[in-house]
């Protein structure tokens, strides 16, 4: 079935890989956009609604803030603790409702975003909590509003660790995207299953692994480079990176 | 120029009246401020001193309402802060600069960017922001470092950025909570000089907290001593020094504790204004034929005039020295008489 000497073998293989890589980048990229758009505010909201936080009195009510904080934490923990395969299957009706189908790369974006949002929100939460309370106080003394404190102090000051957190998040989205490929089709994961597993093609397997490895390396390198550029503190980036990796691993 | 004699006529820039603040509740309650009242006159540098935990930080934080007092009122520049709406309070804060012990600069912004932050928050448009930030960085002597990030600056330079940021929106009042405590003596001196300069050049009223008497002695016009959340003493420095038994004065001008011989009289003379220039002690020795020993002496220049205290030991009992003491008092000097007891202590 697999005939390496077939003149069509290599051209077909490359075309297959090109399409699959494109699909993977598409679902990971779009999921990443949703992850940042929703995970960032979610992380900020979790920190803000804590006792002593910027939004400890939503609409003037400490109790309302506490309730919101509890609900958000619950969502984040739930999202992080349900195994991805189960989440993916459980989300099939939701995916079908949102996308119209539960098969293919576009459909994969739904479970990928939903698993990555709480993951990234936790990273944001950690990064924001690292910001020195003195800076918030200084901003208050300069007459800043709460939103100005978020946009001009918390986010810029936490940007470097958030970028590192994002790189860890992308890595796990890529990881999960392969799993989606297995179940729903699309991307490099599905190539690995269809060719590597079902047709015993070692070549397909190796090339898929190499491509994924390269994508992950490039992204990590970009993130580390970006975080270093954003960090104006000395010798901090390495420490933070390790911190995020230990969080991501645990 | 130090505040002139007509300062009394102007209303105070800061008036804190009957302010109390308790943290926590029940058994864990800590009364940080207990019915505190004080006034800071326009153009003066006002120092707040006291032991750790006395409530100094809490007090200065009530002046821009970073800490909201439980009771009492805070009036800054004629505006009662405790009743302001959130947005009015934010506007008021833009005219009350604050400098912090640990600088509290954004690491992600340059010196220039940190100063511009204050202007962004005050709603200054972008062209004016740049110009004003450079101007103010020049004023604090950091024009050359405008493009540096805080991590590239020394402690003293960081504090200059902190001061520039506090001054950017042209406040009338500058608050400083231990601004020099994280700095070495040399740098401390230069930052204090900067405070003095902006106080004089911009006519800014400064309220600062410190635990170093040298800071008060060096630049303050007035001071308050805080103890367990209460103001124990407050007033102009010259006035405090001429107050018998003033603890601030004793702390500012410690006379040491050389032991007097038993059976002698110990007197503390407080000098202020012109009396410090006269040869008081020589005259005393001559006119009363006394063998005067000097146990301790401090003469300092405060607000441009000499002030100080001297502790003298005179032979004989207080009764025997009454005439000499009267003579000193007649010259307008403030004299406190102690008799050395047998143990050599001073009572
Ligand atoms: N946010 C807070 N919550 C609870 N207790 C507080 C708080 N802030 C201050 N206190 C307490 O209030 C008292 C006064 O504190 P404050 O920080 O004003 O003292 P301080 O004179 O500035 O001391 P230091 O010289 O050590 O800075 C202390 O007992 C402190 O523990
Ligand atoms: Mg303090």
TrEMBL record, chain A:
TM region positions: 25-49, 70-92, 98-121, 173-197, 203-223
Compartment list: Cell membrane
Stretches assigned to the ABC transmembrane type-1 domain: 21-219
InterPro entries: AA_ABC_Transporter_Permease (IPR051322), MetI-like (IPR000515), MetI-like_sf (IPR035906)
Keywords: Cell membrane, Membrane, Transmembrane, Transmembrane helix, Transport
GO CC list: plasma membrane
Biological process (GO), any one: D-methionine transmembrane transport
Pfam families per UniProt: BPD_transp_1
Membrane topology: Multi-pass membrane protein
CDD domains, per database record: TM_PBP2 (cd06261)
Highest taxon of source: Bacteria
Family: Belongs to the binding-protein-dependent transport system permease family.
Name of the protein in its database record: Methionine ABC transporter permease
Naturally occurring in which organism (per UniProt): Ruicaihuangia caeni
Automatic annotation (TrEMBL), chain B:
Domain of life from the UniProt record: Bacteria
Entry's family note: Belongs to the ABC transporter superfamily.
Name this protein carries in UniProt: ATP-binding cassette domain-containing protein
CDD domains, per the entry: ABC_MetN_methionine_transporter
Sequence ranges assigned to domain ABC transporter in this UniProt record: 14-253
Purpose of the protein: Part of the ABC transporter FtsEX involved in cellular division. Has ATPase activity.
Listed PROSITE patterns: ABC_TRANSPORTER_1, ABC_TRANSPORTER_2
SMART domains linked to this entry: AAA, NIL
Keywords on record: Amino-acid transport, ATP-binding, Cell membrane, Membrane, Nucleotide-binding, Translocase, Transport
GO molecular function: ATP binding; ATP hydrolysis activity
GO biological process, one term: amino acid transport
Subunit structure: Homodimer. Forms a membrane-associated complex with FtsX.
